């Protein structure tokens, strides 16, 4: 299989919009059923050998320990409990409303009760509409859903490699269901002042200085898949720094700026993996220098911090 196979947004936009809402339903269950972690690290999904997982949760409020998994090979949603019980239902043929009902029913069959505080989309255009009433989003093309998981798997491994070069606090490589992007974040260790009017979700996410790198599949504002990187807070002069490769560019996004590199530009290159690592590295190098990070102390070349072992690398 090619590294970074084609996945034009135009070919699976409807399926993506439906799947995004499926994952928000399960993500909100994860949010309600897990112990809160710094920067919301308890909430995102992790990529598996068949799709996405919530990881084990529950064991609180009388619920058993359980896991919810998206299987993008067989195209099932599976709920599994620690005692070995479980139940599944097919992903294809579901609207958001029917998926919501089926998910709650599946949880009930294994003895799990979860009440969602806000059972509607988060930061999506139809955020006012309850999941239970959304019969509009009902597309699910198994080919493209499987292809998107292949891309997530391959991008995730490149992000793991980039993460290995940093010995400071670094997030897992994980998928955020609110914006449906996969990312890894490096931390300087210093506190950051919240921006004016910053919402509580963002205040927790950006309570420390960060440099984050990731990938998303595109949306209405940027209708094509792309790799991205940014610093928060953004140090003065960052957007004037050069990026690698030459095809990378800065875009306005929300209240800040993103360095972006289109997925198709990477695919067209001679060494896509090294291109992405070089892109992430160029943003990190500039942002860390301008923000005064001790990049040398925080480095772990080849994932190694042992000074004796590093002499042999």
Q: How do the strands and helices of this protein lay out in sequence?
A:
Layout: H1 9-33, E1 46-47, E2 51-53, E3 57-58, E4 65-71, E5 76-81, E6 86-90, H2 96-109, H3 142-163, E7 174-176, E8 181-191, H4 200-205, E9 208-216, E10 226-232, E11 249-253, E12 256-262, H5 263-267, H6 272-291, H7 295-298, H8 307-311
Antiparallel strand pairs: 1-2, 2-4, 3-4, 4-5, 5-6, 7-8, 8-9, 9-10, 10-12, 11-12
Pfam families: DUF5996 (PF19459)
InterPro entries: DUF5996 (IPR046038)
Protein name: DUF5996 family protein
Question: Which features would summarize this protein structure in a list?
Answer:
globular, six-stranded antiparallel β-sheet, 313 residues, alpha+beta, 32% helix
Helix-strand pattern: HEEEEEEHHEEHEEEEHHHH
SS strand fraction: 15-25%
Note the total helix count: 8
Q: In angstroms, what separates the terminal alpha carbons?
A: 31 Å
Low-confidence stretches: none
Q: Major sheet, described briefly?
A: 6 strands, antiparallel
Report the principal-axis shape.
Answer: globular
The overall pLDDT, averaged over residues, is 95
Let me know the number of strands: 12
Radius of gyration: 20 Å
Q: What is the number of independent domains?
A: 2
Helix content: 25-40%
Structural class: alpha+beta
Protein name: DUF5996 family protein
Pfam families: DUF5996
Q: What report would you give on this structure?
A:
With 313 residues, this protein is α+β, with helices and mostly antiparallel strands. It has helices spanning 9-33, 96-109, 142-163, 200-205, 263-267, 272-291, 295-298, 307-311; strands spanning 46-47, 51-53, 57-58, 65-71, 76-81, 86-90, 174-176, 181-191, 208-216, 226-232, 249-253, 256-262. The strands form two sheets. Strands 1, 2, 3, 4, 5 and 6 form a six-stranded antiparallel β-sheet that branches. Strand 11 and strand 12 form a beta hairpin. The radius of gyration is 20 Å and the shape is globular.
């Amino acid at each position: 299989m090619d590294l970074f196979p084609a996945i034009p947004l135009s070919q699976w936009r409807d399926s993506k919009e439906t799947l995004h809402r499926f994952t928000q339903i399960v993500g909100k269950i994860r949010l309600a059923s897990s112990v809160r972690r710094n920067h919301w690290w308890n909430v995102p999904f992790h990529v598996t050998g068949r799709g996405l997982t919530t990881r084990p949760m529950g064991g609180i409020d009388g619920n058993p320990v359980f896991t919810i998994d998206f299987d993008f090979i067989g195209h099932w949603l599976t709920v599994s409990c620690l005692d070995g019980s479980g139940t599944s239902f097919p992903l294809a043929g579901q609207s958001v409303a029917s998926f919501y009902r089926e998910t709650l029913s599946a949880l009930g069959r294994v003895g799990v009760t979860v009440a969602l505080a806000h059972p509607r989309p988060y930061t999506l255009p139809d955020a006012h509409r309850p999941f239970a009433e959304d019969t509009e989003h009902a597309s699910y093309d198994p080919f493209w859903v499987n292809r998107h998981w292949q891309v997530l798997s391959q991008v995730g491994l490149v992000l793991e490699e980039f993460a290995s070069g940093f010995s400071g606090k670094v997030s897992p490589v994980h998928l955020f269901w609110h914006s449906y992007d996969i990312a890894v974040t490096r931390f300087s260790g210093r506190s950051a002042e919240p921006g004016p009017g910053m919402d509580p979700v963002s205040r927790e996410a950006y309570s420390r200085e960060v440099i984050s790198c990731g990938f998303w599949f595109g949306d209405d504002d940027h209708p094509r898949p792309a790799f991205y990187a940014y610093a928060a807070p953004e140090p003065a002069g960052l957007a004037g720094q050069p990026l690698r490769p030459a095809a990378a560019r800065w875009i306005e996004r929300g209240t800040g700026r993103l360095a972006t590199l289109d997925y198709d530009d990477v695919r067209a290159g001679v060494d896509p993996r090294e291109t992405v690592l070089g892109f992430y590295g160029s943003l990190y190098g500039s942002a860390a220098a301008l923000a005064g990070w001790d990049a040398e102390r925080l480095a772990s070349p080849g994932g190694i911090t042992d000074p004796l072992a590093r002499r042999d690398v």
